[in-house]
Amino acid sequence: MGRASENIKNKTESKEQAVFLRKKVSLLQTVSFLIGTIIGSGIFISPKGILINSGNVGTSLVIWLACGILSMLGALSYAELGTSIKKSGGHYIYLLETLGPLPAFVRLWCEIIVIRPAITAVVGLSFGRYIVEPFFAPCQAPALAVKLLTAAGVSLVVFVNSCSVNWTARIQVVLTIFKLAALGLIIVPGMVALAQGRYENFQNAFDSSKITLDRIPLAFYSGMFAYSGWFYMNFVTEEIINPERNIPLAIISSLIIVTILYLLVNVAYYTVLTADEVLASGAVAVTFGDRTLKGFSSVIQILVALSCLGAITGALFAVSRVFFVASRENQWPTLFSMIHIRHHTPLPAVLLMYPLVILMIFFGDLYGLLNLNSFPRWLFMGLVTFGLIRHRYKQPDLHRPFKVPIIIPGIFTAMCMFIVVTSLYSDPINTGIGCALTLSGVPVYYLVVCRHQGPAWCRKALYHFTVKLQILMEVVQQEIVTY
User: Fold this and answer.
1) Residue of 306, 305, 304, 286 lying closest to 296 (CA atoms)
2) Which letter does DSSP use for residue 200 in this model?
3) Is 340 helix (H, G, I), strand (E, B) or coil?
């Protein structure tokens, strides 16, 4: 009996000392991560994208609600995938498991060269601009000051993600609270004004004279972009406590909260500002703050900046796990599947995007590159939910703790493909470039990934380089399987 107890104790101590990604993310932290990554800078700065393409206030509010519902369909589909496929990696691992290695690698390729560095740099520049501008008002903030502060903010986020999962989760909770406070500073004055009888901006809310049907899809694109981020917790499935319960709960509750908040914020905007004032504003939240908070409008700017920082924190935490999983699946260099021996974070995967983001902050044509993202983003999300349908028929006996009606992924797949086709029609140049960059991953897959053995000298050089970096970073392969 004593020997058995000692063996159990030794196994427990051995597991505590082992290097692997631990389940440290609770339900509250999961909800905070999702709300913090969904609500970025868009709802504060440019809701006019939906208004200008929808034609009137009433239709724009309907589109905000419809985008929330459509996002929920995608989120429910991802919740099923997250509870039946227990690996981290999100889009990448679901494509790998349902449609095969080629589409999974092409999605990974797009994440690295098209999507992630540009989005992180643009959101980071929003952070830098809204922190710096109050100190230079009414003059324009110097571009170099904005870029330097942006680089400092991104560096801080990378440092925290490298050091501790717990720190990252706690900081994200705090930043989400600041984000909700910013929304509260918009919603409360707006609702007070509405209660005082200020309905004049909602008269003729559905005036059809300015509606053009061919622009409605563009309004939906802007709305769906504002809701994007609901899929990030599927990237870290292996680190979520009780994922079979917490993933569906977190995704559903987060999207309900965000949809309600988005509707209330837009009603507040239109209560205080006319449609023409919204369209003329470069940053609607700041214009709103100038009108309602008088001398305290700079508070909204600071909170918007913290909102952007929260979006970067959550996205980097999630996306680094994609590179970690891709390396583990032998589609990316071995170094990126290694974990720091003390901090238990995937340090090489966290650091991978850092130099690219910094380069784009200082030298990149960011907004031009962002326009290329619509094609790969919606194409691969549609392929993921199509893969769910195929997975149902190929593996009908697989245990699925959370299961949605097949019509839900069907509708979401059709919607994603509709957005892809619409973007080809409305912006053929940028969409064509995005398509070309996406397809560039195909020859890379066949030339590099399929020939992973390579020449002996190349394998030897890569091995020695990996060992040197492994020693420098103090990282090793994961010692316990977490899926």
Assistant:
1) 286
2) G
3) strand
pLDDT digits 0-9 by tens, 423-479 = 777 778 877 888 888 899 999 898 888 776 567 777 788 888 889 989 998 888 876
DSSP H or E stretch at residue 351? helix 347-352
- Which residue from 53, 62, 67 is spatially nearest to 215, judged by alpha carbons? 53
Return the exposure string of 183-197: e unless at least 16 CB atoms fall within 10 Å of the residue's CB, then b: bebbbebbeebbeee
> What contacts 472, CB < 8 A, 6 or more positions away?
none
Structure-token pair, residue 279: 């369209």
Kindly report the backbone phi and psi dihedral angles of residue 323, in degrees, each rounded to the nearest multiple of 5, phi listed first.
-65, -35
Residues 206, 209, 211, CA angle at the centre, nearest 5°? Answer: 75
Residue pLDDT, tens place only, 136-190: 777 778 888 989 999 999 999 999 999 888 888 888 888 888 888 888 989 999 9
Residue pointed to by tokens 């540009």: 118
Task: Give the pair of three-digit tokens for residue 330.
Answer: 């032998």
Cα angle at 39 between 36 and 45, to 5 degrees?
140
Q: What is the pTM of this model?
A: 0.86
At position 348, the amino acid (one-letter code) is: P
Rounded CA separation 229/38 (Å): 4
Mind listing the pLDDT tens digit for each residue in 275-300? 888 888 767 887 888 888 876 777 88
Measured CA to CA, the distance from residue 50 to residue 261 in angstroms comes to 16
